[in-house]
Amino acid sequence: DAAPCGFGHPSAWERLGGPTSDRLARCLAWPEVRRCRQTSRSWRRQWRGFVPSSGELWDSDLDGARRGEAWKGLLLDGLSVRSLALQESYESLCNTPSSYDAMIQRDLARTLPQEALFREKLGKGQRALFRLLRALAVHLWDVGYVQSLNFIIATLIGVFPDDEALVFHCAQALLFRYSLVDFYRPRFPKLGVTVWQFDRLVEGFLPKVHVALHGHGVTSEYYAMQWFLTLFASDLSQPVVRRIWDRFLVAGWKVIAQVGLALLYEVQDTLVSLDTCEALTFLKRFTRTRRFEAERLLRVAGAFEVSHRMLSELEAAYDSPGGGGGEAPPIASCGGGGGGGG
Question: Is the dihedral of CA 285, 290, 294, 297 positive or negative?
């Protein structure tokens, strides 16, 4: 068989030399780089361990294979499968019945139905999603299964559609390295402080929005909880979500706060013109009914100078006596009821 990229024999690769190989590789899509590595020993040596840099991931909407390599590198860097303290294999876990099976089954059809991978009832995507959520529920017995995890896992499946075991390991790394697991533990220990932090950020960066929301008796607990629980995967299209996650995996939780502010910034003129009933409905729906372009949204998000130090100071204020642990104001009524959590 002919070697990829038009080279008929592996020895042709060996004669290219390092600088030429490097220039050529920069012009190839990542799947082609991988094929070339399979053909040439020198390329395997030169590109051993190569993954796109964090800068590339931050700046560019990488193709699926290159994004997968970058995410895998960020999530699993410094870990090995053996070091994940897994005594049972993924196959064993996903074939172990769980008390959450019925709940997981009910959520399959509700998870990213707009995506071709998950549209078919009990098709490839739904089967993988069920097995992965069951395996996590069995393995993370103190968490089990919590609605919202389905969107997290489905997004990972979309990036690694042919490797469930890799998704399983990446999911654990995402949950623990980025403290996402604390959103799903009993009593949701991270959710209260995150909501309070975001309300303070809205107050500081978007005072016009804050005044409007305060007038309606609305906090981010009403409209943004799913943003935090699913890292926007339940609300925004997958291409936009993947670009947000690109930056989240590089820079952490400040990116989620910045994107939340950007979403409100984009609709602030509409929001301030609405009465309470209209505002309550709008806040629940706008991320799903409006089309957001990923790069524009990220540019707007980057203009909000949220730092990890700022988030840490807000967390300390929340935990202090008389801090943010108090009761939120009631949401104003609008006749038929404002609507509950999404």
Answer: negative
φ, ψ (nearest 5 deg) of residue 227: -60, -45
pTM over 0.70: yes
pLDDT in tens, 181-207: 999 998 888 999 999 999 999 999 999
Output b/e per residue, 270-304; b: 16+ Cβ within 10 A: ebeeeebbebbebbbebbeeeebebeebbebbeeb
112-155 pLDDT, tens digit each: 999 999 999 999 999 999 999 999 999 999 999 999 999 999 99
Q: Which two tokens stand for residue 118?
A: 């998950």
Which residue, chain included where needed, has tokens 């130090």? 309
Buried b (16+ CB within 10 A) or exposed e, 197-223: bbbbbbeebbeebbebbeebbbbbbbb
Quick: pLDDT tens for 62-115. 998 999 999 999 999 887 655 444 545 899 999 999 999 999 999 999 999 999
Average pLDDT over residues 297-314: 96
Tell me the C-alpha distance between 203 and 205, whole Å.
6
